[in-house]
Design a protein that fits this description.
Largest sheet: 6 strands, mixed
Number of helices: 11
Subcellular location: Cell membrane
CATH architecture of the largest domain: 3-Layer(aba) Sandwich
Distance between the termini: 61 Å
CATH topology of the largest domain: Rossmann fold
CATH class of the largest domain: Alpha Beta
CATH superfamily of the largest domain: P-loop containing nucleotide triphosphate hydrolases
Membrane topology: Peripheral membrane protein
Function: Part of an ABC transporter complex. Responsible for energy coupling to the transport system.
Shape: globular
Order of helices and strands: EEEHEEHEHHHEHEHEEHHHH
GO molecular function: ATP binding; ATP hydrolysis activity; ATPase-coupled transmembrane transporter activity
GO biological process, one term: cobalt ion transport
Helix content: 25-40%
Strand content: 15-25%
Strand order of the largest sheet: 6-7-8-3-9-10
Radius of gyration: 22 Å
């Protein structure tokens, strides 16, 4: 059984009124346990609406969403669903509730009614996992943006979720903060946490083994990044900008160089160019009779 299963999900804001807006229009997909999935799309594609369905912050207008076999329409399962799927949002300042880091991380476990010793153990573990243990006595407002998001992630981890959903969680961060958050969620995924990373940053999506592209509330593309980012014309039609290295590889192919499809990283492109230069040199030596 997949951890997340979405069946014909349709979400309409202001349904039944003249202001009705269709945000999601018949989405069906599954996310297996342990996956690391990026969801990308232009403004208005439905990314954030989809994120809020994954732990029942929104309920379907039509269709169904299942989390670990539980239907999000089942209000009796709401608490368990939200324990399994933790959400990290765009602005870290909106997620921090305490004046000391360790108290903030303890907030969720305390609301679960856990014994004090268990809360302490979970706070220690969560701060260690996000590499923020040395800041446990710091005031959150004195931290950098990336550090604040790592504290927010620790607060979710302390509740032991099976899945972490990040809704544009790196958008407001500087490059260093973005790297810190990406390294943290990659480490969590290696440890078995399912990660759904909703982002507009294509260079982050490249790092995820599976990329889902939303357009007009529907799934437009779904596959490995090498496959998705080779669909250049479609991505342009969805008003999405290719990551820098796939974009450069595409321009070189367009200009006549036989660069392979599916290149994502600078090392791959450098290797392809090096091989072309070596092959050209080899043909030159063969042509002039040198050995």
């Amino acid at each position: 059984m997949p951890l997340i299963e979405i069946r014909n999900l349709r979400h309409v804001y202001h349904a039944g009124t003249a202001d009705a807006v269709v945000a999601l229009d018949g989405i069906s997909l599954t996310v297996d346990r342990g996956e690391f999935v990026a969801i990308v799309g232009g403004n208005g594609s439905g990314k954030s609406t989809l994120a809020k369905h994954l732990n029942a912050l929104l309920l379907p207008t039509e269709g169904e969403v299942f989390v670990d076999g539980m239907n999000t329409r089942d209000r009796g399962a709401l608490w368990e669903i939200r324990q399994r799927v933790g959400m990290v949002f765009q602005n870290p300042d909106n997620q921090l509730v305490a004046t000391v880091v360790e108290e903030d991380v303890a907030f969720g476990p305390e609301n679960l009614g856990l014994p004090p010793a268990e809360i302490v153990a979970r706070v220690d573990e969560a701060l260690r996992v996000v590499e923020m243990a040395e800041y446990r006595q710091h005031e959150p407002h004195l931290l950098s943006g990336g550090q604040k998001q790592r504290v927010a992630i620790a607060g979710i981890l302390a509740m032991r979720p099976q899945c972490l959903v990040l809704d544009e969680a790196t958008t407001m961060l500087d490059p260093q903060g973005q790297r810190e958050v990406m390294e943290t969620i990659q480490r969590l995924n290696r440890d078995g946490v399912t990660v759904i990373h909703i982002t507009h940053a294509m260079e982050e999506a490249v790092q995820c083994p599976r990329v889902i592209v939303l357009a007009d509330g529907r799934v437009a593309l779904d596959g490995p990044p090498a496959e998705v980012f080779s669909r250049v014309e479609e991505l342009e039609r969805f008003r999405l900008v290719l990551p820098p290295i796939p974009a450069l590889a595409h321009r070189l192919r367009r200009d006549g160089l036989p660069i392979p499809e599916g290149i994502l990283y600078v090392e791959e492109l450098a290797g392809a160019l090096t091989r072309l230069v070596a092959e050209g040199a080899g043909r030159g030596r063969a042509g002039d009779g040198t050995h």
